[in-house]
Amino acid sequence: MTFNDLTGLMPMLLPAVGGVFILVMVALGLDKDIRWPAIYTVLFLLLSGSQAASLLARGYRDELFDGAVLVDPRALAFHLIFVIVAVLTVLSSAGHLRAEGHGYAEFFALIQFSVTGMSMMASTENLLTLFLGLEILSISLYVLAGFTRDQVNAIEGALKYFLLGAFSTGFLLYGIALFFGASGRIDLPGIASHLASGRGGPADPMVLAAEVMVALIAAFTASRIVGATGVPPPGGTAPPA
Questions:
Q1: Chunked in runs of 10, what are the mean pLDDT values of the chain (241 residues)?
Q2: DSSP of 23-80, one letter per residue?
Q3: Where are the domains of the chain?
Q4: Does the model's pTM come out above 0.85?
Q5: CA dihedral 22, 103, 141, 89 (to 10 degrees)
Q6: Which residues are paired to 94 by β-bridges?
């Protein structure tokens, strides 16, 4: 790995390093005041965002790890969006968590790991890298959904989200396997090239099945986002399944 490659990875790596740093603080018992983990999290996120802005201003574009990671202006722009949302989340939640008695620094580590997962998904044209980013994001969100574990709705929401994620993971992996079986490639340009070469001929059942698997994941995700608007506040009555 060259210095140029490491530079391109820094926006994605800094939130991960920040998350590990917060976990080390927790292990050493240095998280007594939740304000310090929140401050360190904001610092790591701002460093990551400034690095992404610098690369974006330079028009940086490079394929890393044999094309598994693609850092280009579009990916960097998405990363900046993720960082801004994460910083706003940290600033708005620190005081609330302390007031509600859930002032645990692990919350901020999970936020940073989520940013890493989202950035990995935005910085790839490889289905396996996409899957890894999705899993990093999903595992963090499973824990965040049930973070206030003394509330029944939080535990129920986390369990439902975990079950949905488990089914979605199965469909996604099956779809990736079918795409690979049909085209021999797991990168999106290679799959697109294979599909373009067969245009006008009979439809490949394996490709159709793979497309259905991926479409199911999108449908499941959209349904849960819409359904989340009906979740009642703590202590309320759960909506019918």
A1: 78 94 89 86 95 91 84 92 93 82 84 92 87 87 82 80 82 86 83 76 76 76 48 40 36
A2: HHHHHTT--SSTHHHHHHHHHHHHHHHHHHHHHHHHT--EEETTTTEEE-HHHHHHHH
A3: 1-148, 149-230
A4: no
A5: -90
A6: none
Spatial separation of the C-alpha atoms in residues 6 and 4, rounded to whole Å:
5
Alpha-carbon gap, residue 121 to 171, rounded angstroms: 17
CA-closest candidate to residue 171, choices 213, 231, 208: 213
Of the candidates 1, 42, 50, 41, the residue with the CA atom closest to the CA atom of residue 21: 41
The dihedral region occupied by 13, where left means phi > 0, alpha psi between -120 and 50, and beta the remainder, is: alpha
Q: Which residues of 111-128 are buried (b: 16+ CB within 10 A; e: fewer)?
A: bbbbbbbbbbbbbbbbbe
Beta bridge partners of 187: 126
Q: Which two tokens stand for residue 116?
A: 């890493």
